[in-house]
Hints:
2 copies of one chain form a homodimer.
Chain A: H1 3-7, E1 10-14, H2 19-29, E2 34-39, H3 45-48, E3 53-56, H4 61-70, E4 75-79, H5 94-107, H6 110-124, E5 128-130, H7 132-135, E6 144-145, H8 153-169, E7 177-181, E8 184-188, H9 194-206, E9 218-221, E10 235-236, H10 238-246, E11 251-254, E12 260-261, H11 264-274, E13 277-280
Amino acid sequence: MPAAADATPLALVCGGGSFPMAVADSALRDGRPVVLFAIRGFADPDSVQRYDHEWIHLGAVEKLISLLRRRGCHDIVIVGNVLRPHWWQIRLDLMTIRLLPRILAAMRGGDDHMLSRLAEFVEEQGFALMGAHEVAPDLLVPAGVLGSVQPRPADLEDARIGLDVVRTLGPFDVGQGVVVARRHVQAVEAAEGTDWMLERCALLRQRGRVKLPDRAGVLVKAPKPGQDRRVDLPSIGRLTVEMAAKAGLAGIAVEPGGVMAVGMAEMVREADRLGLFIYGIAE
Amino acid sequence: MPAAADATPLALVCGGGSFPMAVADSALRDGRPVVLFAIRGFADPDSVQRYDHEWIHLGAVEKLISLLRRRGCHDIVIVGNVLRPHWWQIRLDLMTIRLLPRILAAMRGGDDHMLSRLAEFVEEQGFALMGAHEVAPDLLVPAGVLGSVQPRPADLEDARIGLDVVRTLGPFDVGQGVVVARRHVQAVEAAEGTDWMLERCALLRQRGRVKLPDRAGVLVKAPKPGQDRRVDLPSIGRLTVEMAAKAGLAGIAVEPGGVMAVGMAEMVREADRLGLFIYGIAE
């Protein structure tokens, strides 16, 4: 990153959830000014107003670019959920409409494809698309055991199998999450997301479809191999720990440096309280 | 198969569902006598009594073997669900108790491993474990389009991707089913089973988490590569078609010769009525 760009305010294009604010706080702790470009209808107004910010509409690319230029931004990070937009939340300006064929073409062929096209476009406009992990590296889950609960040998084996599954599924642009229990793959995450998969694992046990002792099995999360890490690194948090506990799992294992955690200290406290380990898989 | 064995009555060890009866009917149509060894609490008594049969308890291996010998059986097929047995449904006889260490060892390491150990044991006792597909080949879904609805090029592409995913996951002993829609993997089946996965796909659309036009996406089923096909070939039926329709899919694609269908004609009629294709993927 050139020193000149580093001095410019960081642009955080900000959807829903608490993740954008965690990234902003981390960058501010590093002494870098931050401007939130908060997407109306998604970003939380109460949180947004605590930061230097601009409101934007989803789909208003031209407006966003002119605001980015006016604020002297160079580095852009896109964070937070933009799930299920309603039509009235989308405002297409002229530039967006001109871009529609490219946007539609990018939407074919999986998330990774779309994200690389987005990065290309941002660069054409003279900006740089960065990953949350680059501006807020303290949000990445490190290698090793995080809390006071240690994974047992059977857990380490489950973690290893889970990591293999995620990596094997990489070419299909799917499966940042998988649950392995006693060497059996219990669930593979696709479009439903991690929370829903963990709910399913809890039900599989309740309904007796999967018979396991309590605290057996590991949730494994890792980025897809070759994934553009600038957008959408997998993440875990306190809720993930709670849902993993409800699913009867022994802990959570992640690819170190490849998975983010919002509220890491709080998450680890909760894991300790519930008796789950959190482990950055040592290779 | 030696001619001598072929003349002996076929032993169908029979759990729940209608699948065992479909296999019995198919063998009988071929002129082969059949004896059902119906597992108490699982096999349906009304259906069982229409056939020459013996009742057995789950877990009573010694008793089963003596019955098999008394009936002059040589070839054994095991079919039907034995899901979630209650303790009072299990009767361990002396032979089973002696076998317990082997059974427990076989239960580690995935379904495939367990099935090969089972086949080994059956052969040691002088019997042969056969697959339902060997004694009832007319239950296998053939290559090509089965009903009157044709898959479109986009569906064929989804089917191909789905088959790749199933084959890639083979080494992990998981995923006989997968849903692919417009080149995106929507869901991967693990311990939850096909029906549950299809319910999830329906919910993913209802909740707007996946946005697709109606009748887009394909359920793909195929045996795991290297799977011992003598037990537990994947299957589809009328219910699968109905659930695929509710999930908004365009059709069902299977590995021809690798997936069984109970009530094939009825299933195809239902698929035609609902506008879904059923397709044995041509390689």
